[in-house]
């Protein structure tokens, strides 16, 4: 069964890199991308993605509000990965919004993003331990 990933990122280059990397490295995942929070909510309700990768700083509707809206949806459930500044208040806001994972921008590595998305899409519980550093608890 094909799984969906939704990338919500204002930077066009970063959106393209993530989707291209997913396509090249994770079979069975279709990557969709939008550049603002309002489109993210609409696309999430349409696609019902398994994983959503969201930047906190988005135009129209920020990533925290998108996360809260998507997590409250009764139409589907998904795992949300937020990225943002590493200040404690951002991490706490990610937790309050319902994010499952938070990746600080200063430790953002494409290999980590692809690895986490891959493990989440395979539901590899044994391999999820290595992502505990990014888990929002």
Descriptive account of the structure:
The structure is a single chain. This protein is α/β, with parallel strands linked by helices and 137 residues long. It has one domain: Rossmann fold (3-Layer(aba) Sandwich), CATH 3.40.50.2300. Helix content is 42%, strand content 20%. It is built from 5 helices and 5 strands. The chain has helices at residues 12-25, 37-47, 63-72, 88-97, 110-122; strands at residues 3-8, 29-34, 51-55, 79-84, 101-104. It has a 5-stranded parallel β-sheet, with helices on both faces. Helix 4 (88-97) links the parallel strand 4 and strand 5. The chain is globular. 35% of the residues are buried. The model has no long low-confidence stretch (mean pLDDT 84).
Which terms summarize this structure?
single chain; 42% helix; alpha/beta; 5-stranded parallel sheet; Rossmann fold; 137 residues
Helix count? 5
Number of strands: 5
Structural domains: how many = 1
Q: For the largest sheet, list the strands in their spatial order.
A: 2-1-3-4-5
The CATH level-2 architecture is identified as: 3-Layer(aba) Sandwich
Could you list the spans in which at least 5 consecutive residues all have pLDDT below 50?
A: none
The main β sheet shows up as: 5 strands, parallel
Average pLDDT reading? 84
The percent range for strand residues is: 15-25%
Cα distance, first to last residue? 30 Å
CATH class: Alpha Beta
Pattern of helices and strands: EHEHEHEHEH
CATH topology: Rossmann fold
Q: Percent helix among the residues?
A: 40-55%
Gross geometry? globular
Rg calculated over all Cα atoms: 13 Å
Structural class: alpha/beta
| CATH H-tier superfamily | Response regulator
């Amino acid at each position: 069964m094909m799984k969906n990933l939704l990338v919500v990122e204002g930077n066009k280059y970063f959106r393209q890199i993530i989707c291209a990397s997913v396509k090249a490295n994770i079979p069975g995942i279709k990557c969709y991308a939008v550049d603002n929070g309002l489109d993210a909510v609409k696309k999430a309700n349409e696609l019902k993605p398994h994983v959503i990768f969201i930047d906190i700083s988005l135009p129209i509707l920020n990533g925290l509000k998108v996360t809260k809206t998507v997590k409250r949806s009764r139409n589907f459930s998904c795992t949300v990965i937020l990225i943002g500044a590493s200040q404690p208040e951002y991490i706490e806001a990610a937790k309050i919004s319902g994010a499952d994972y938070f990746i600080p921008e200063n430790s953002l590595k494409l290999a980590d993003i692809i690895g986490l998305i891959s493990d989440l899409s395979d539901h590899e519980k044994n391999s999820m331990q290595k992502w505990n550093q990014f888990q929002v608890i």
